[in-house]
Amino acid sequence: MRKLKLSVLLPVIQLPLALVLWEWGGRLPLPSLGSGHFRAGPLVCYGINAPAVFLRLVVFPFTRGSRQWAQPSIFGYGPEEWSFFLGVVILWFLVGTLLDQRGSENGLSDKRMTVIDVLLRLSGIVLGVVIGIALFVEGQKGLRIPYRWGDYQGTVVESILFLVWSFVLICFSGVKVTRMIRRVIRR
After folding, report:
1. Among 90, 92, 158, 170, whose Cα sits 20 to 30 Å from the Cα of 84?
2. Does residue 141 lie within any of the structural domains?
3. Residue 64 Cα distances to 39, 70, 162, angstroms
4. The domain containing residue 10 runs over which residues?
5. Distance, CA of 161 to CA of 156 (rounded, Å)
């Protein structure tokens, strides 16, 4: 019997979860305190899928220009939301792929690494550390100013999840660097 791959299962589960949280947040009234405009649902969704937020930020400069034209919308979601949801799928595909490969890690260690392999791995490690640091900074800021997005509980949950993601990304990158160094030393 063929084993279901997590690289398929995780995105299939996480995308509907993200959409449900987003829609649930859209149905709640805005809190009266704070200067923000987010509800708990999207904030929790951002926390669960924290690295995917950066794909939304890539689109952000292009959606904040002139208001002469209406923002395009598909099913009520604009370009920023669609880029975030695409980021959710990519994020959980990558997480699932890493978890799927975990069992076959021993077989890959005998393969000779090329310069391109090393550069790709190093760029992934650097990206993981940079995103981890950015999430750490945002998580700290959210805990210091819990009303910054307008919803106290949502901001606190989002900030804690940002801190968890930052810890995971930075530690994972450190483990990857250690493995690469050990692999080079063994040869």
Report:
1. 170
2. yes
3. 21, 11, 25
4. 6-63+75-100+113-186
5. 9
Cα gap 109→111, rounded to integer Å: 5
Instruction: Count how many domains the chain has.
Output: 1
- β-bridge partners, 74: 77
Sequence-separated (6 or more) residues with CB below 8 Å from residue 143:
156, 159, 160, 163
Residue showing tokens 């990519």: 90
Cα separation of 10 and 117, whole Å?
26
In a domain, 106, yes or no: no
On whether residue 107 sits in a domain, the answer given is: no
Is 57 a member of any domain? yes
Q: pLDDT of 27-55, one tens digit each?
A: 555 555 444 566 788 888 999 999 999 98
pLDDT digits (tens, 9 = 90+) for 61-82: 677 755 655 666 777 777 888 8
Q: Are 96 and 6 a contacting pair, CB within 8 Å?
A: yes
Helices (H), the chain: 6-27, 40-48, 53-63, 79-102, 105-108, 115-144, 152-186
Question: Do 15 and 22 meet the contact criterion of CB atoms below 8 Å apart?
Answer: no
pTM of the full structure? 0.79
Q: Give the residue from 155, 161, 162, 97 showing the smallest Cα distance to 132.
A: 162
CB 80 within 8 A of CB 64: no
